[in-house]
Design a protein that fits this description.
The chain has 701 residues and is of the alpha+beta class. Strands 8, 9, 10, 13, 17 and 19 form a six-stranded antiparallel sheet that branches. Strands 11, 12, 14, 15, 16 and 18 form a six-stranded antiparallel sheet that branches. β6 and β7 form a beta hairpin. The chain starts with a helix and ends with a strand. The chain has three domains: 2-30 and 86-441, no CATH class; 454-566, no CATH class; 570-700, Jelly Rolls (Sandwich), CATH 2.60.120. The chain is built from 23 helices and 19 strands. Residues 301-306 have low confidence and may be disordered. The protein is elongated, with a radius of gyration of 30 Å. 48% of the residues lie in helices and 14% in strands.
Length: 701
């Protein structure tokens, strides 16, 4: 008895060690950029993943009592802004442990991602091996393909997708709940309640992924009820109803933080149009991922027929194997001497049908797509790149389906020999092993992901002095342009805010607060005006400072003076928005936007400013050379209110040649002008003259 127990224990210990060893070997390859750089290159780029690091750090500060949970130190003085993006609550629990252990923000983030892959691998293995009773080989093979897929290798640049690694835990809890549903009331309640709480917290971690994980489960349940002809009346007794109600109540209670965070944002009416969602839908060519090393070196030219969305899809071997195993299950249901449809076959066929149906929802054929139905009725369907999140949900269940099918075929082979063309059981098993190995090999992807240089980041943010004591918030400036996009500089400000504890007016997220619209302006003269306009709309009159990240210097921001600022200089440079013409330097070293004869279109437009109420005079410094014509002007000058698509001043038609002459337009901004009302100055050339614009000024009087 003792020897038997000891042998069983040793067997479990060896298999566990072997499983962890396999994960470790795969992880070394998967995170090779990070390891080979001496823990310096962090996954991601300077955009999304640094934003996610900031949100993780926000939770760490919340757990330490330094920040309010709904108010990260961004977009000051807006409130309840956590709901403008994913909250990453569950991830932050792991992140905070690494931070508390002394790791910096970058290492803590990287270690969190690595730990999530460990959870995904181990629990996928546990789900397959211990619950579904799959053999060791297929359990480990499935875990590798799920955890280290080619799609996940690409998704490392944007860690929102790593929530999929919690899927095996959730499915395990749900299956345990279902198995005990009619047998052990309290055991079923504990598993079901745990699944409900975990799902609610997943909503508070990555709501797009969670919406469509739940959506997939609902579709699967529907198809299972149809295929199995299961009667819902089996759940109508008081015991089962009470169990369902208690599990649902656990979900609602655990969902309260999510509702508190996101309902105010939902009431703001933020929603992307169907056109925004449509561009992220996949074509048939996008359904297969050819970016792995195996395929890129053989038929890599096929990538030219797909958009970047194919990177998040499954590799060719997985797709082909999925449909092959699906046909196997349909074949099993048609064997002539079968007298009943087994539960495992009902589940497998229902899962196959659900996955195929979901793929059909994601496809677009020209202008037609079934996603319009999802967009209209499913919350979260309008979110940015939600199709990507949904594909990871589908891929998880697809991998589970494939290797479960392999395992069933493996053990059914002796019975199938007498009823099919299979004559050699050993050859068939060898074929299953070889296909499994190929599915692993084709996941090898050499896509580099170490885009965040930890040492460079630490150098950039080192030596920042303490902000002035009277400062209540700050905004970032950069006197020496580093070549970083202004979006990246916005996240720089967020990092500085968390380092200093001083809120920043800057920010970046999936949604932007109403009236916050200066993220793409780089001209120092206009930028402070936009800051002042934002603060005025928010009725804030406190002490604001500016931080020059190039000089690492704080300076007071004269808010009162900017409120009264009577002149706004519109930038004329190579960055000035234009459809025709080009920027050039004149002999007096001033620059101008210049259009030659034959060019027609917008020579200058923008900069989309929110303006204070009052009377304005726009001054255009323009030169024009050409042959006068009464019917056809050289250029049209106007002031446009972009949010209403209407002109608010009379157009001025240039009909005579002029050399560096000032032209004036007067217009009014009424007191009802809101933060969403954006004004632009435009110079539109007709094509019959050379036209140059060297200066545009808005004077308030």
């Amino acid at each position: 008895m003792n020897d038997s127990f000891q042998n069983k224990y040793q067997h479990k210990l060896v298999s566990t060690f072997f499983t962890v060893l396999i994960w470790g070997i795969c992880s070394i390859y998967f995170w090779q950029d990070f390891i080979q750089s001496g823990f310096n290159l962090i996954a991601g780029n300077l955009g999304d993943n640094r934003l996610i690091i900031c949100l993780h750090e926000h939770w760490y500060n919340v757990f330490n009592g330094r920040d309010h949970w709904l108010d990260p130190l961004f977009f000051f003085p807006a409130e309840n802004i956590l709901g403008f993006s994913d909250a990453y609550f569950l991830n932050s629990l792991v992140y905070s442990i690494f931070r508390a252990a002394g790791a910096d923000v970058y290492l803590s983030f990287q270690f969190t991602l690595i730990f999530l892959t460990f959870l995904g691998f181990i629990f996928f293995y546990f789900l397959c091996r211990k619950y579904i009773q799959m053999n060791l080989f297929f359990s480990i093979a499935g875990s590798i393909v799920f955890t280290f897929s080619c799609a996940m290798a690409y998704a490392r640049i944007s860690a929102q997708n790593f929530s999929v690694y919690l899927s095996p835990i959730l499915v395990f809890l749900i299956l345990r709940c279902v198995r005990n549903f009619h047998v052990h009331y309290w055991r079923s309640l504990s598993y079901g309640g745990s699944a409900s709480i975990l799902l609610a917290l997943l909503f508070y971690t990555s709501f797009n992924f969670s919406w469509f994980f739940l959506f997939f489960l609902c579709l699967f349940s529907l198809f299972f009820l149809i295929i199995s002809k299961y009667k819902l009346t089996a759940f109508l007794n008081k015991r089962d109803i009470s169990l369902i109600v208690l599990i649902f109540m656990a979900f609602i209670i655990a969902l309260v933080p999510f509702l508190i965070t996101y309902l105010p944002v939902a009431r703001e009416g933020f929603e992307r149009t169907f056109s925004d969602a449509f561009v992220h839908l996949i074509t048939v060519g996008d359904l297969i991922n050819f970016t792995s090393t195996v395929w890129a070196k053989t038929i890599g030219s096929l990538q030219a027929y797909s958009s970047d969305l194919h990177r998040y899809s499954n590799t060719p071997g997985v797709v082909i194997t999925f449909f092959a195993t699906g046909f196997f299950w349909f074949y099993m249901t048609t064997i002539s001497d079968r007298t009943r449809f087994l539960i495992r076959e009902k589940i497998a066929v229902s899962l196959f049908v659900t996955i195929v149906f979901c793929w059909l929802l994601l496809l677009r054929f020209g202008e037609f797509t079934l996603w319009s139905l999802v967009y209209d009725f499913i919350p979260g369907a309008s979110a940015n790149r939600v199709v990507v999140r949904f594909q990871f949900v589908i891929s998880f269940f697809g991998n589970l389906f494939i290797f479960y099918s392999f395992n069933q075929i493996w053990y059914l082979l002796p019975k199938l020999q007498k009823k099919t063309l299979i004559s050699k059981e050993a050859i068939a098993k060898l074929f299953l092993v070889m296909v499994s190995i190929f599915l692993i090999v084709e996941q090898i992807c050499q896509y580099p992901v170490g885009g965040i240089d930890r040492k460079l980041e630490q150098t950039r943010f080192s030596g920042i002095p303490n902000p002035p004591e009277q400062a209540e918030a700050f905004f970032i400036t950069e006197s020496n342009q580093s070549g970083r996009s202004f979006l990246v500089v916005q996240i720089d400000a967020m990092i500085i805010a968390q380092m200093t504890g001083l809120p920043t007016i800057n920010g970046y997220s999936g949604w932007l607060p109403s009236g916050w619209n200066f993220s793409h302006t780089q001209k120092d003269i206009v930028y402070p005006y936009q800051i002042a306009a934002w603060l005025e709309k928010k009725q804030y009159t406190g002490n604001i400072v500016a931080f020059d990240i190039s000089k690492k210097k704080w300076c007071l921001f004269p808010l009162e003076a900017v409120y009264k600022m009577s002149t706004v200089q519109v930038e004329i440079s190579e960055r000035t928005p234009h459809n025709v013409g080009k920027f050039r330097i004149l002999s007096n070293r001033k620059g101008e936007m210049h259009a030659d004869i034959g060019e027609s279109g917008a020579l200058v437009f923008g900069p989309y400013l929110p303006l204070r109420s009052g009377k304005y005079k726009a001054i255009f410094d323009i030169s024009a050379t050409g042959t006068p014509s009464e019917k056809k002007p050289f250029a049209i000058i106007d002031i446009n209110l972009t949010t209403q698509g209407s002109l608010i001043s009379k157009e001025l038609f240039l009909r005579e040649p002029v050399e560096k002459q000032k032209h004036f337009l007067e217009f009014d901004v009424d007191e009802h002008s809101g933060p969403k009302d954006l004004y632009e100055t435009r110079v539109i050339v007709i094509g019959n003259a050379e036209v140059g614009v060297s200066e545009i000024t808005l004077n308030r009087f």
